[in-house]
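Before drawing any conclusions, I looked closely at one protein, both as residues and as discrete backbone shape codes, quoted below without any editing:
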Amino acid sequence: MMGGMDDALLARLADTILGNLVREYPCQLAHVMHADADARPPRDLTPVFWGCYDWHSSVHSTWALVRMRPRVDAATRARIDARLDERLTRANVDGELAYVTPRPSFERPYGLAWLLVLAAELRAGDADPRTDAWAGALAPLEALAQARLLAWAERLPAPIRTGEHGQSAFALRLALDHARATGDAAAAAALAAAAARLHDDDADLPLALEPGAYDFVSPTLGAAWLIAAVRAPDDLAAWLDRAAPALGRGARLTPPPATSPAERADGKLVHRDGLALSRAWMLAELAAALPPDDDRRAALAADAAAHGAAGLAALEGMTYAGSHWLPSFALRWLTSPARGA
């Protein structure tokens, strides 16, 4: 066991991600074309983040490789390092910038938020010349992503309460985590202000209507997870009393039903497997953020464990519809600080 995780599972996740990062097709591009010359293969359009079916999945799969580096055996780490050496170069990042710069809404907010998570992960931990070099190469794209997300957050007139990529609370939390991890006090303050403006007045969120068929993140838990990062424990407890009064009390969240083989091959219906994993880490981290004597903590932690187990079980029998992104969600749960890994 390494870091509280099963070595065989970690190796399998690494194998899946490393294979997916060089699997160029099938590919879904959110691709605005300006001229005939824009009709090029993904590896030319976005030379860092291709493979894994779409750009954002390539980004958070790359984050997963960085996150697992200290936790894997030497041979697996060497394979990870070789892949990251190949991708995270200044020349490749310049290619990304050439693509992203003239497309102001590209991968906003979800993909850009995950890029910030990747950038923060590269700076985490002990000094490492290799991760320092990767972080330095990525820095111009990191700066662009942060600037775009800050501008977006400041002008957003209302929350985007979806269970898919457009959810505003999820992206704001990831961006806030990056700002704090990198010591950017001004960005952190701006993001916290946006969170307060968008969610301070939340009340009676419709948790009973969740999940939608395509959800992979919970609108209610996403908002709570964000507020947990910007409010003191007592204030968070009071916010939950208004926004989701039954959460952790009368409303116990149960894991979504296991997907069928047909659903595992459906790019939308397989989202349910990811929902189990994102709920798991949000529930666990929400429980940890509440006051020590809050009566919801034990129930939320138990629901987190049940969701995590269901999400990990869903890794069996994956098709590419799930395997191009679920391993990174699994790693996010497995390494959640609230889980104790």
